[in-house]
Amino acid sequence: MRPSRLHIPKHHSRPGETPDFSYLELAPAGATQRPDINTRVRDMNGLAFELVRVIDDGHTAVGPWNPHLDPPELQVGLRHMMLTRAFDDRMQRMQRAGKTSFYMRSLGEEAVAVAQGMALRPTDMLFPSYRQQGLYVVRGRPLVDLMCQLLSNTRDMCKGRQLPIMYHWRDGNIFSISGNLTTQFPQAVGWAMAAAIKGTDDIAATWIGEGSSAEADFHHAMLFASVYEAPVILNVVNNQWAISTFQGFAGGEHRSFAARGPGFGMAGLRVDGNDFLAVYAVTRWAAERARNGFGPTIIEHVTYRGAAHSTSDDPARYRPKDDYERWPLGDPVERLKNHLIDLGEWSEERHAALAKEMDEHVVASWKEAVTYGTLTEAPRLDAHLMFEDVFKEMPEHLKKQEAELRAERAEK
Amino acid sequence: MRPSRLHIPKHHSRPGETPDFSYLELAPAGATQRPDINTRVRDMNGLAFELVRVIDDGHTAVGPWNPHLDPPELQVGLRHMMLTRAFDDRMQRMQRAGKTSFYMRSLGEEAVAVAQGMALRPTDMLFPSYRQQGLYVVRGRPLVDLMCQLLSNTRDMCKGRQLPIMYHWRDGNIFSISGNLTTQFPQAVGWAMAAAIKGTDDIAATWIGEGSSAEADFHHAMLFASVYEAPVILNVVNNQWAISTFQGFAGGEHRSFAARGPGFGMAGLRVDGNDFLAVYAVTRWAAERARNGFGPTIIEHVTYRGAAHSTSDDPARYRPKDDYERWPLGDPVERLKNHLIDLGEWSEERHAALAKEMDEHVVASWKEAVTYGTLTEAPRLDAHLMFEDVFKEMPEHLKKQEAELRAERAEK
Amino acid sequence: MAQMNMIQALNSAMDIMLGRDPGVVILGEDVGFFGGVFRVTDGLQRKYGEHRVLDTPIAEGGIVAAAIGMGVNGLRPVAEIQFADYIYPAYDQIVSELARLRYRSAGEFFAPVTIRTPCGGGIRGGQTHSQSPEGVFAHVSGLKVVMPSNPYDAKGLLISAIEDDDPVVFFEPKRIYNGPFDGDPNKPAVPWSTHPKGDVPEGYYTVPIGKCDVVREGGDVTIVTYGTMVHVCEAAARSLGLDAEIIDVRTMVPLDVETLVNSVQKTGRCVVAHEATRFGGYGGELSATIQEECFWHLEAPILRVAGWDTPYPHAFEWEYFPGQARVAAALRTVMEAAA
Amino acid sequence: MAQMNMIQALNSAMDIMLGRDPGVVILGEDVGFFGGVFRVTDGLQRKYGEHRVLDTPIAEGGIVAAAIGMGVNGLRPVAEIQFADYIYPAYDQIVSELARLRYRSAGEFFAPVTIRTPCGGGIRGGQTHSQSPEGVFAHVSGLKVVMPSNPYDAKGLLISAIEDDDPVVFFEPKRIYNGPFDGDPNKPAVPWSTHPKGDVPEGYYTVPIGKCDVVREGGDVTIVTYGTMVHVCEAAARSLGLDAEIIDVRTMVPLDVETLVNSVQKTGRCVVAHEATRFGGYGGELSATIQEECFWHLEAPILRVAGWDTPYPHAFEWEYFPGQARVAAALRTVMEAAA
Ligand SMILES: Cc1ncc(C[n+]2csc(CCOP(=O)(O)OP(=O)(O)O)c2C)c(N)n1
Ligand SMILES: Cc1ncc(C[n+]2csc(CCOP(=O)(O)OP(=O)(O)O)c2C)c(N)n1
Ligand SMILES: [Mg+2]
Ligand SMILES: [Mg+2]
To answer: Which of A48, B215, C304, D22 has the most Cβ atoms closer than 10 angstroms to its Cβ?
Structure first.
């Protein structure tokens, strides 16, 4: 017997300490069974506690979840991940150089967005958070367009209204990113409910970080998805950190996030988020379930936030410098690269050449993007765009305010 | 394969149909194991799917959860349940007679509040919803006080501000009832966190209906309780209905509400809510766990809403007339009565006499209560009480408004 | 023309829109099989099926979030929040998402969601069944906010709201669901059949969002009000024998400033009245705007009549409610002011 | 006396209260080990331990709910909401619970919770890191609402808030965390050490909740404002060479009407300024109240200066922000009005 006391979740490490990742419940590649998509949830609770892995330590794809992708598809996946990373690197540097106001990298998590984007149909609707830029890469949005958003320039898709990285793409079926965490999670469920009401076979997929699963909207999404068996995939990207707090503060200390699924009678899967093949495979499985009327799935992607939270953040204050290097699930790009080399379909030389190509593409895109202006340099967007799209048609009071601003600026 | 479609939860019956309770997953009395209070959550997930029952069909107490209460204690429990029921019946009639504006009965669910109230310490803090009037009976609040609240009369503990049934009792450690569903659930967790911070060994207990578990505050409560291992008992009273909608609309179709516990790494228990002994036993177990620092428990009480939702509601519009009679878990008063008779500690005659005594007590209390006024008859509360307690001290704008009201009334 | 009360008029609006547009869906707590606790959706599920009229979990935030997602996917959801007092769990989805989606996505995405919710007191609902929170929505850029005062407007405005591609928060003053109410609870209830605005076309028609209604023309004073208070103000002005111009704001956002200004410039006097609490409420916006626009025409201060700045108390409902006496007191002060 | 910026002053207030009262606890996202994204709680967990300064899950509703429960159990919680833009998920707990608990339980229960949250724009935060939502709290009966404009007031008001047995929503204009800001983003940043209100006692003191501060006495016109806008208005009046009386409201609720009325009765002219959006905002309350009380003294309409009624746009921050030009335009109009 011990007295009641307030438990404080433990961190695996703080600055100056050596990360202790022993809390992670891992499993060898190939060990987890793959149930049929029509299996009843209660007969596959275990998936929420195991860890779907395909690429083993010898770089070979093993086990029932192996999606058996052709080498060209794998090469495309690698390319998308490398382009995402090259884009992130350069945009981070551009922010540091004062060219943009803000940036957020997805270093270490590229497999999640890229493999999932590839496993879904182009007509499936995506409701991402801010660390799934890989989806834009997969669906082929020109980098210039993304950069123009980062620059709030004359070609900014958001017309200067949104913070950098808050993209959207109607024609690409990617929903607008909100600055408010988790709000898109239940919206995706509503979208999926509508798809089912309309009788289409498109599905929705949505992403949050593990920290964001604490928000009420996580509950709304889980509940509405399970009650109406909505065709949706709910992704929790457990990159272990939410700014400075560890996943334990979101409830990850006692039980996997995937386990919330079975708690609602919903399929829950835990996957090695740095294993391109595993992420692809579970996404395909969940998408087929949803598309065929067997209901929603929550997928927990076990991964690591390799970089800072954002350009506004200094992780040295709260975590060791070398933690990402010690992350036991490795780096997603390296792992897919090694697998391809193992297959005889890739080489260090081709890899270096591709890296260079990606970087050149990013640089060229940036050069073009800045010709459309930057946040501070001409050409600039017309500030009066600020009054549009508050409503479909501008009401009188906004017309009046717009005129006031015009007068205010004329005076200067 | 079947096309994706919107699933609509099924009702067990609608008016004119015979209730089909086969969806209920029952278990025989005595079948469920009783783990030690320090058992790890992952080693007792099963409790969330089974059903703790003690009183068997032959009225005997059986199995590891038998709390072995002495007959006098059982008689007190029976008395409390019968007083609660007598109170409910009379108050319902008084509302129908136009004496009060509103009432809500707990018919069929009396064991939950009464057994739980008895299983907790008087210093444990209770955060009930509106159907746990039995807690007031157990803790000995005079019925007259409750009635004065129902009447909004000169002795109304709420000073005329709250709808009937929204009691509170600081000295009895029962929190104020809110008209907003579920808000008290995470507040109870906060209270329990404070108890742990202060190092006391009091615990908190809180109640919601299964329908209310859909609200965001359910999630907040589960999360904060599990993250900080707060000493709290979270009760979901699954009486199968939320006004007109069946428990399936709250997510009960696919999985028990208790299962949400293991989803968070929290102990979850499912109990026969109409079995006084079982409810008492699981509450004691959860209280000991919490008090000794082993963390929170969510308890789902499987019971049935015997009456209408409230006096504003006509259940004939959405459910069969005879559904409560067909409820497979019986009536909590009858079951405890039969158990006591079986023990040789009770008789039909004593039961009838007690029923009469309870009713007389209620009638006498009512007679007294109305001497302090009713909502419409003198003596009436001073309307100016309306301006007090908005803040601790009345600010100027309220003083001014109070004066305005005085002038307005003087004029009449 | 048929005689309808407000419940029937609202029901008719949804019935018509469900019939005209396969994208219209209704969702909310108890709205389906049961037809809503105020029976506003009665019969609609039976007529249009469980995929068009959905019972939902008790999660206002989830209801609005789901409605947004449906709206993004081309549907036109009409969500019911059972009482306006229970809309706050959905406040984040409404304010941060619904109101700003079109803006933040530069028009690529929008969700044409209508949120219906009964508001106001006078039914002994106590502090959690009586609130009028229009003020905390009117302040949010991107939302349209509506509150009808009679069956004719209710139906026409609800159809406009459903057809509107902007989000609309639609408040229904429940005290006048069944009949107009002049503020005197001791008088026998009057049904809508005694009121000209209880004559409601059975078919499709709209009342525009963004236009006030001059309920009564007059030259002495302008009363700017909406919802239940329209009827209370009419009675108060009548009892004082005033030739008041009474304006039913009807749509809090966008506000038809022109109609207000024209009237106050004519009368030179103004009282603003609503049932919501006074401090920081929508009446402040009305008063401030009219003062800015009509300052040189004003012959007396603009006064506000409102609920007191307390929660709505169960037992003192009629001392709380801004009834005829409170309106009359303000009118008298405004009329007595030296010109 | 020490030189403190607003972050240090707020930190000092909490440090002192944690030291004086074992019931004080701090909770919020990243407030513990990390010390908060604006570093306002820096070092407090190290000093007082993990049971007094708690990192929480990212759930604003849960944070406030837990704080209420703690408050009911005798603690004095200070909850941080990381940005005011993220307070809406907690709106229900604040409005329906925190604000009304004392009332509904007739004083038997109350929760002395302080909610701190950074507000306002000017840091390129875009529409979700720039909002000023004080208006949707000021309208709610039972809440006190505070917004300081300098380090001295920030510390004194925060101590008052923590000691207050009523709930307080405490807004911190993040643009002036490090120094006063006159609205011109092109000028070099000025630190608080150049400002008299950057002199802050190291120990305990309070600034009362419910009292405005007359920042500058003057006879030409009264400017009623708060937060960042205090400094912008000072600069605007100076640039026009006006002898303006500038009043820092400081506490939106309870409002010190007397100080406002005395001033406007003296000057006869008034401009109300805040950064929040204009329509339905707190400025309406200020304008309406002053007009009601000072009508016979007014020589010109009361004008409001505010953020436009749009979300706060990232790229047009300075066209959006109510800077000196906008304030000056209103001042000129008010001064030019014929008496
Ligand atoms: C409602 C809300 N609360 C707080 C924030 C501030 N915030 C932005 S990101 C973040 C951490 C999110 O962590 P996680 O969900 O794990 O995502 P990750 O950054 O790790 O990808 C916080 C607290 C916000 N944007 N919205
Ligand atoms: C936030 C909120 N939403 C809606 C309501 C209206 N309402 C009151 S009771 C109720 C049903 C609750 O059902 P349940 O939780 O199962 O409790 P039971 O009545 O069965 O005891 C509803 C929808 C409310 N009071 N608060
Ligand atoms: Mg994370
Ligand atoms: Mg129920």
So the answer is: B215
CA-closest residue to ligand 2 atom 13: B242
Say if the Cβ atoms of A163 and D129 lie within 8 Å: yes
Cis-peptide, bond into residue A379, ω within 30° of zero: yes
Q: Is D231 a catalytic residue?
A: no
What residue of A is the nearest CA neighbor of B247?
A: A227
Contact B103, B209 (CB under 8 A): no
Residue from the list C62, C128, C329 with its beta carbon closest to the beta carbon of B408: C329
Does the beta-carbon distance from A3 to B42 stay under 8 Å?
no
Nearest to B160 among C33, C35, C313 (CB): C313
Measure the N-to-C terminal CA separation of chain C; round to a whole number of Å. 46
Contact D124 A102 (CB under 8 A): yes
The H-or-E segment that residue B245 falls in is strand B245-246
- State how far residue D138 is from chain C, nearest Cα, in angstroms: 6
Q: Which residues of D touch C95 (CB under 8 A)?
A: 88
Do residue B192 and residue D257 have CB atoms under 8 angstroms apart? no
Give the per-residue pLDDT at B375.
Answer: 85
Alpha carbon distance C6, C18 (integer Å)? 18
- Angle subtended at Cα D120 by Cα D41 and Cα D128, rounded to the nearest 5 degrees: 90
Instruction: Give yes or no for a contact between D273 and D304, defined as CB atoms under 8 angstroms apart.
Output: yes
Output the pTM of the full model.
Answer: 0.98
Tens of pLDDT, residue by residue over C27-38, are 999 999 999 999
* Nearest ligand (C-alpha, residue A214): 1
Q: Find the residue in C nearest to D101 (Cα).
A: C311
Rounded to whole angstroms, the Cα distance separating C184 from C318 reads: 9
Six token digits for residue B350: 């004593």
> Quick count: other Cβ atoms within 10 Å of Cβ A123?
11
Looking at residues B186-207, what average pLDDT do you find? 97
| pLDDT one-digit tens code per residue, D292-335 | 999 999 999 999 999 999 999 999 999 999 999 999 999 999 99
Name the pairing type of β-strands C114-119 and C168-173. Answer: parallel
B371 Cβ partners below 8 Å, 6+ apart?
none
Q: Which amino acid is at A404?
A: E
- D196 Cβ neighbours under 8 A, 6+ residues apart: none
Nearest ligand to residue B211 Cα: 2
Terminal C-alpha separation, chain A: 74
Q: What is the mean pLDDT of chain B?
A: 96
Please, are residues A274 and A108 in contact by the beta-carbon 8 Å criterion?
A: yes
D249 CB contacts (<8 Å, ≥6 apart)? Answer: D147, D212, D224, D225, D226, D255, D256, D260, D286
Burial call B309-320: b when 16+ CB within 10 Å, e when fewer: bbbbbebeebbb
Q: Which residue has the tokens 């904060």?
A: B224
Question: What is the DSSP-derived secondary structure letter of residue B175?
Answer: P
D288/C304 touch (CB, cutoff 8 Å), yes or no: yes
Residues of chain A with pLDDT under 50: none
Identify the segments of chain C with pLDDT beneath 70. Answer: 339
C165 to chain A, any CB pair closer than 8 A? The answer is: yes
Q: Give the whole-angstrom CA distance, residue B26 versus residue B261.
A: 19
CA distance A304 to chain B (A): 21
Tell me which residue in A158, A197, A395 faces C106 most closely, judged by beta carbons. Answer: A158
d(CA D49, CA D26): 11
Question: Pocket around ligand 1: residues whose beta carbon is below 6 Å from it?
Answer: A 131, 179-181, 208-212, 239, 241-243, 305, 309; D 29, 58, 82, 86, 89
- Separation of B191 CA from ligand 1 center, angstroms? 26
List domains and CATH numbers for chain C: 2-200 (3.40.50.970), 213-336 (3.40.50.920)
